[in-house]
User: Which sequence fits this backbone?
């Protein structure tokens, strides 16, 4: 059984007991434990079930590579599925549960899939479940969906918050092992801005566990000293519990800091997502040990050799009293020695190599440990935990020579550098035959904006596989990075590690070498997704022999560990099946993130009300107190209507329209886009931007203008006012302000960069109120301060002045057909001005109105609305706005586009008004039917509605729309389609339904 | 071709699955073909398949630079729907959707088409009107869609937050017969069927030039030598511009990176596909249990299959707000694909200035769902030399004439 040893454990504090539960069972561990260590200390070998066959799964690794030990952590708002126990720090009160089983971890009916495994090889589902057709959706797929998946999705909203931050540095070092610390010391001493990230809570990586000696000190001591030295450097930032997750273009790095995973509910953000811009990125991310492929290598108790060592040395946890070691390299002997030194039994070290010569095997031998060379494991026995192993000759077919009873197997198939971050942004790999692994190819690095290398791999991550080599490599790599940043000084201090002579490893991809298909179908490559050696061979046999095909067909490497353990072994099997070399087969693409990142951290603080920036007009608070019903308009919120008493929205909108038409309406028009265009070439610029002529507009006057895309399609409209000789104020639609401003700058910066024009978006500098209705002038006169008479301020003019003591600019424009003034004041005075208008207007019948009344009144008047009458396919001519297009100008944006045959065609649908015969309202989006079907069997159409409302003024449905023939069709009766039944008949009419002669607005 | 079935699996199981034949052959190219398709993605393979099935042309080679299905076919979010606005779009996407319904049986390969329903959320009044328009258009196009209430939205997808403070859900355009499919299987299924008809799928073979005589195509130069053909179909998505240049003309196409990501797998929590265009994000759950999430396109042109990170953040802000329960799930993998965008966001299925040379491209961000319809229409064009009804509107000269098929209409500006 796995258990806690009576002494040792460099990372645990035995004085601080931490109580936790697993599947409801109370357990105890110590501060400093990982959850995996604590589970093992409580003899919890079985921790989960695999994805496909629901086979028993135990802890196999000790870090982010772990594919098996995924648990559901926490409950309610802190419930988190698929949490890796090997990287979860234990805390008092932790609750966790195993996943993917029913009814329980020990008795899972899903294990029937295991019994049927022979009938469920890789990709079997592509070959069946096809008949009868309906059965896929209604029978097979629901069963597959229910048995797939891993953890249960959370049911409640997240109880935690997340933070995002930016950081900048010259040198970003990812990985706080001895190579990373070496790099930080060198770069820090050189005076550069350094950030050093470490994914674990503790520093130093493998060296302290492996017993390495640095600068004559035990590694742990050197690490502590290095940290002290770095702490003193103000130019160096150390950040642990922070994973370098992804490398993106131009030195942009994503890092995920687990701030409060181990202290949930303490008020701090759960995670902090760092977006780091670095001059040079140094990846000192170490290496990951590979499993060996032998039959039964997935049974709980079979673990990676180095992970076994981690549990013993770091946490004083024994995986079992008797552990068989199986290896093809010297490193695993460290585990044998560590187990032996901890007083545990190592009955045999099974080494696939025929001879062993390194320092470590000699030490093991000296300790009296048995080494069986040239041997392999034929089979591991056991169900939910290992009971024994059968040995065979590695070169043979698996005939059992000897059986050894044991509780754990520690395996090592060699090491693979963690090349993920190197590869994310295009770094290439080279195959290293000495270590049988891919390592970064320094001649083909990821490059930055300047085309020069932006990532340097250090230490084991670069294929320097001993501590001594890693320290040298880290120093060299750091110097390279410093040189790229313009520092050519030799490092002042370089630490070095004592060499340990290791003999060459020997690649072993299948154990034993001559295993038949029966054994191969028990050799696991991907523990979580249940991909076996036989599955990869099947894929190759069936022609899915590109590495990407194999991956997708078998799901190899697609589990939550993204193939950290399985990929290289799988590639080797595939290469063998294809009769090719491994480097020819290549790897699948390394994609961010290195380890999964919580979605909440990626979303950050953008939740609820502040999900997006909220833009509020100066009058927003007033609207809220009046019970306005808001609608989003871009990032703005605008009052849709102001219901009173028990009014429905339809009722309040009708009241607002009637009151404005008969007395006085006030509209908060502050969201209207306002862009100042100024400069010697401003007139010329606006003449290019608008279809009409703006340069000739006299100072003090306003003119309606249209803007088109280069293709000729109408994109925005608004009133332009000439302020002075060189200054124009362009009003845009509320939703269009930012887009139009960017559009202006696009042309000024990219095309007409030699024109002297300056633009400023002053939308938020001004509050604007539309005072609308027969009593509008009376209200302004009552406010007093300036002459707003018809003579002094006629239609389409503006004037500066004061009203009620407020400095204002008054535009005599109308979007409703009524007598109307739009009045701009400084944003800071907007609320007060709005209140003053209401106070003074009360006796004149003043009421606020919202966007819906605005829309209805403009439709009654036949005014088009960008976004309703336009949709990106409409040219001004379609909307009978040809009058606003200059015939004289040589050019304007959209002119050439509009000359193309289809845009100039007479057959285009054109704007008209529509009145239903029965007075009803045409549904939104309805099309006008035409006889027959088109070549694709679709109903023919001849037009569509663009704006349709119940007009409170006319007491009937009115609509604007596009129809082939346009106004020439006046008087025709046409059919609009409906979703529910018979078409609606409507008559083609003039789109101006109200006050055709403008008698109301021009008073 | 040995048929796939549950009985075949049982039979092979007794022999430890040693007896399965190759899904497709990997021959060396012949000197001359009746038709060459460049690009063994979904669209190219579907074109070849329908050339054989509908038009009896089987002396066909499909030439692929990398591995078949390795472009956007293998890196999309697998959504299948046909609720498009414009008539030509609705016609071809609906044709595709209906072919997906029977594809597994047609190809004898389970492509896992699952009509779980697609909803497009309306979160502004403007969007409501837009989807009402699409619903009215669909009604005349023979595409079954309906506009559903917020309550029905919640019923179909309980994990949706329909009462968000910023963009409450006001309804949705619902296409019950839309859904998802297994993207790789579509390419593999077509490849197997093409191979069974005697067509040559030539992977790891890059086209380096287009040879023509007197304005008519004669074949392609490749890394495996010259291969002659009577007709040439180019179906290479993001790399169409380069192939067009080899053929001697330019295309109105831009290549940008479109990103997607998946979460770690969890037990089923979402049956339908949800698209939320106001906040920019869409999500479904795969049969494996991963939440499959689609993001936006970069604002700049490039050929890296990566994309910039801020789009991922924007997408997740939108989706965590829309589906609050996903906050504690984790992003497992993100990737990008190169999409070929035309000016009107609709594809090109067209004759070209070069005789007997045909292009099928410009599917932009929505190509997967179109694969069978696209192949069907392209095969007809190649076989007859003239477009049929499905392809006619998608000719490349429409940009010159201004006759756009604009599907970005729904993204019309707010008032």
Assistant:
């Amino acid at each position: 059984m796995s258990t806690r040893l009576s002494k040792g454990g460099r990372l645990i504090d035995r004085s601080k007991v931490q109580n936790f539960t697993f599947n409801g069972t109370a357990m105890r561990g110590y501060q400093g434990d990982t959850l995996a260590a604590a589970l093992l200390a409580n003899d919890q070998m079985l921790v989960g079930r695999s994805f496909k066959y629901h086979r028993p799964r135990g802890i196999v690794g000790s870090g982010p590579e772990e594919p098996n030990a995924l648990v559901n952590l926490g409950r309610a708002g802190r419930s988190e599925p698929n949490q890796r126990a090997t990287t979860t720090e234990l805390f008092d009160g932790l609750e966790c549960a195993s996943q993917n089983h029913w009814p329980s971890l020990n008795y899972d009916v899903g294990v029937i899939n295991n019994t049927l495994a022979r009938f469920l090889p890789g990709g079997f589902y592509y070959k069946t479940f096809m008949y009868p057709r309906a059965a896929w959706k209604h029978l097979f797929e629901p069963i597959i969906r229910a048995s797939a998946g891993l953890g249960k999705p959370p049911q409640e909203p997240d109880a935690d918050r997340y933070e995002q931050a930016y950081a900048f540095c010259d040198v970003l070092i990812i990985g706080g092992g001895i190579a990373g610390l070496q790099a930080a010391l060198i770069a820090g001493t050189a005076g550069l801005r350094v950030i050093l990230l470490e994914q674990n809570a503790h520093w130093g990586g493998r060296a302290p566990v492996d017993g390495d000696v640095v600068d004559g000190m035990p590694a742990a001591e050197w690490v502590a000293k290095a940290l002290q030295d770095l702490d003193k450097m103000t130019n160096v930032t150390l950040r642990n519990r922070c994973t370098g997750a992804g490398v993106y273009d131009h030195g942009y790095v994503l890092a995920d800091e687990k701030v409060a995973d181990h202290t949930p509910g303490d008020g701090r953000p759960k995670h902090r997502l760092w977006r780091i811009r670095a001059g040079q990125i140094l990846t000192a991310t170490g290496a990951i040990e590979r499993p060996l492929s032998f039959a039964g290598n997935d049974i709980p108790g079979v673990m990676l050799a180095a992970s076994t060592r981690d549990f013993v040395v770091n946490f004083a946890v024994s995986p079992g009293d008797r552990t068989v070691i199986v290896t093809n390299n010297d490193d695993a002997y460290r585990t044998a020695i560590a187990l032996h030194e901890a007083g545990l039994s190592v009955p045999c070290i099974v080494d696939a190599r025929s001879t062993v010569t390194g320092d470590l095997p000699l030490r093991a031998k000296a300790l009296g440990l048995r080494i069986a060379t040239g041997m392999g494991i034929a089979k591991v026995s056991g169900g939910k935990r290992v009971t024994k192993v059968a040995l065979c000759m590695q070169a043979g077919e698996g005939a059992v020579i000897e059986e050894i009873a044991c509780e754990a197997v520690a395996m090592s198939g060699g090491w693979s550098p963690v090349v993920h971050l190197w590869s994310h942004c295009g770094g290439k790999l080279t195959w290293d035959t000495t270590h049988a692994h891919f390592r970064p190819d320094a001649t083909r690095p990821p490059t930055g904006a300047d085309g020069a290398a932006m990532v340097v791999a250090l230490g084991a991550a670069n294929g320097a596989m001993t501590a001594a080599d890693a320290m040298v490599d880290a120093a060299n790599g750091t110097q390279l990075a410093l040189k790229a940043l313009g520092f050519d000084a030799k490092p002042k201090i370089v630490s070095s590690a004592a060499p340990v002579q290791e003999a060459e490893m020997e690649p072993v991809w299948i154990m034993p070498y001559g295993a038949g298909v029966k054994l191969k179908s028990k050799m696991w490559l991907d523990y979580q997704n249940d991909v076996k050696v036989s599955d990869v061979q099947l894929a190759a046999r069936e022609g899915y022999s590109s590495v990407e095909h194999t991956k997708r067909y078998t799901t190899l490497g697609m589990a939550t560990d993204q193939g950290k353990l399985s990929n290289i072994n799988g590639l080797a099997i595939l290469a063998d099946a294809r009769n090719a070399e491994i480097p020819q087969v290549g790897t699948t693409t390394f994609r961010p993130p290195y380890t999964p990142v919580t979605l909440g951290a990626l979303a950050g603080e953008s939740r609820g009300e502040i999900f997006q920036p909220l833009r509020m007009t100066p009058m927003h608070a007033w609207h809220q107190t009046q019970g306005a019903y808001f609608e989003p308009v871009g990032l703005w919120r605008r009052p849709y209507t102001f219901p009173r008493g028990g009014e429905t929205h339809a009722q309040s909108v009708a009241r607002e329209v009637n009151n404005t038409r008969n007395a006085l309406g006030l509209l908060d028009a502050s969201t209207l886009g306002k862009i100042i265009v100024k400069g010697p070439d401003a007139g010329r610029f606006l003449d290019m931007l608008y279809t009409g002529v703006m340069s000739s507009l006299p100072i003090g006057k306003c003119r309606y203008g249209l803007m088109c895309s280069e293709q000729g399609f109408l994109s925005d409209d608004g009133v332009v006012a000439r302020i002075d000789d060189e200054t124009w104020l362009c009003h845009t639609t509320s939703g269009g302000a930012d887009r139009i401003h960017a559009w202006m700058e696009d042309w000024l910066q990219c095309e007409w960069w030699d024109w002297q024009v300056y633009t400023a978006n002053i939308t938020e500098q001004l509050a604007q109120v539309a005072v609308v209705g027969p009593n509008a002038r009376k209200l302004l006169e009552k406010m007093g301060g300036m002459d707003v008479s018809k003579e002094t301020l006629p239609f389409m003019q503006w004037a500066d002045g004061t009203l009620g003591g407020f400095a204002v600019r008054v535009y005599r424009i109308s979007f409703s057909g009524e007598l109307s003034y739009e009045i701009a004041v400084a944003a800071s005075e907007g609320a007060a001005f709005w209140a003053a208008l209401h106070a003074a207007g009360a006796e004149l019948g003043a009421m606020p109105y919202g966007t819906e009344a605005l829309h209805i009144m403009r439709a009654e008047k036949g005014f088009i609305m960008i976004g309703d009458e336009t949709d990106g396919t409409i040219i001004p001519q379609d909307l009978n706005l040809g009058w606003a297009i200059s015939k004289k100008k040589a050019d304007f944006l959209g002119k050439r586009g509009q000359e193309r045959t289809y845009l100039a065609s007479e057959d285009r649908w054109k704007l008209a008004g529509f009145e239903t015969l029965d007075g009803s309202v045409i549904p939104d989006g309805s099309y006008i039917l035409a006889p027959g079907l088109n070549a694709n069997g679709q109903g023919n159409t001849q037009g569509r509605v663009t704006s349709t409302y119940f007009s409170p003024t006319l007491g009937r449905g009115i609509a604007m729309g596009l129809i082939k023939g346009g106004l020439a069709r006046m008087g025709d009766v046409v059919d609009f389609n409906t979703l529910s039944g018979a078409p609606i008949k409507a008559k083609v009419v003039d789109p101006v339904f109200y006050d055709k002669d403008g008698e109301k607005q021009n008073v | 071709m040995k048929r796939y079935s549950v009985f075949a699996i049982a039979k092979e199981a007794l022999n430890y699955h040693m007896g399965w034949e190759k899904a497709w052959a990997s021959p060396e190219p012949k000197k001359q073909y009746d038709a060459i398709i460049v690009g063994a993605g979904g669209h190219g393979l579907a074109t070849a398949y329908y050339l054989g099935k509908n038009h009896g042309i089987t002396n066909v080679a499909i030439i692929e630079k990398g591995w078949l299905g390795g472009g956007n076919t293998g890196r999309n979010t697998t959504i299948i729907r046909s609720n498009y606005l414009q008539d030509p779009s609705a016609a071809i996407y609906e044709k595709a959707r209906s072919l997906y319904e029977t594809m597994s049986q047609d190809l004898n390969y389970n492509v896992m088409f699952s009509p779980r329903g697609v909803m497009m959320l309306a979160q502004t009044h403007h969007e409501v009107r837009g989807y009402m328009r699409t619903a009215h258009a669909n009604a005349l196009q023979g595409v079954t869609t309906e506009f559903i209430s917020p309550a029905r939205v919640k019923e179909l997808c309980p994990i949706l937050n329909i009462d968000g403070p910023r963009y409450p859900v006001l309804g949705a355009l619902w296409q019950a017969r839309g859904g998802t499919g297994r993207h790789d299987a579509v390419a593999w299924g077509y490849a197997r069927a093409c191979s069974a008809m005697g067509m040559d799928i030539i992977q790891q073979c890059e086209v380096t030039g287009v040879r023509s005589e007197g304005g008519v195509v004669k074949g392609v130069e490749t890394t495996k030598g010259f291969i002659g053909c009577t007709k040439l179909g180019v179906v290479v998505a993001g790399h169409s511009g380069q192939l067009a240049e080899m053929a001697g003309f330019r295309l109105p196409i831009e290549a940008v990176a479109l990103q997607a990501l998946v979460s770690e797998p969890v037990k089923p929590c979402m049956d339908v596909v949800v698209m939320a265009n106001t906040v920019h994000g869409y999500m479904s759950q795969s049969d494996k249990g991963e939440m499959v999430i689609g993001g936006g396109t970069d604002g700049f042109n490039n050929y890296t299959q990566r994309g910039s990170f801020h789009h991922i953040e924007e997408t997740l802000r939108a989706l965590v707000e829309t589906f609050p329960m996903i906050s504690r799930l984790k992003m497992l993998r993100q990737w990008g694909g190169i999409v070929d965008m035309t000016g009107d966001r609709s594809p090109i299925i067209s004759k070209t200035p070069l005789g007997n040379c045909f292009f099928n491209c410009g599917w932009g961000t929505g190509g997967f769902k179109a694969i069978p319809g696209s192949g069907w229409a392209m095969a007809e064009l190649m076989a007859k030399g003239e477009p049929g009804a499905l392809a006619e509107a998608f000719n490349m000269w429409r940009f010159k004439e201004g006759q756009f098929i604009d599907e970005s209409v729904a993204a019309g500006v707010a008032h």
Notes: The longest strand of chain A covers residues 162-174. Residues 71 and 98 of chain A are 5 Å apart (CA to CA).
